[in-house]
Design brief:
Layout lengths: L2 H28 L4 H8 L1 H14 E2 L7 E2 L1 H17 L2 H18 L1
Antiparallel strand pairs: 1-2
InterPro entries: Brnchd-chn_aa_trnsp_AzlD
Protein name: Branched-chain amino acid ABC transporter
Pfam family, one: AzlD
């Protein structure tokens, strides 16, 4: 296969990935959304981050109840405290990374 084929496939994949990510933002700016829809949409980032957090704190096995990853939960506690006090994502991430690194070093 030629290099042009790979280039077109790469550009096509880029376009197919880029369009669904950008078009909603363009449409949201052009259309005034009702306050109830805006309120609903404001909860989406929080729910996504919560789902990612629980996925990283639990061990899932088919046919079993989820088990807790205790080092990750212990590292999550200081990160949550920093998050409540500062509301700064960078400080939360740094606290969590340092916490889990220290726990893995100790345990």
């Amino acid at each position: 296969m030629s290099n042009h084929y790979y280039l077109f496939v790469l550009l096509g994949c880029m376009l197919v990935t880029w369009i669904p990510r950008v078009v909603p933002f363009v449409l949201a700016r052009a259309v005034a959304l009702p306050p109830t829809v805006e309120k609903f949409l404001s909860y989406i980032p929080l729910t996504i981050l919560t789902a990612l957090l629980f996925q990283s704190l639990l061990i899932f096995k088919a046919g079993h109840f989820p088990a807790i990853k205790f080092p990750e939960v212990l590292a999550c506690i200081p990160a949550l405290i920093v998050g409540i006090r500062t509301n700064d994502l960078m400080k939360i991430v740094i606290t969590g990374v340092i916490g889990i690194a220290l726990l893995r070093l100790i345990l």
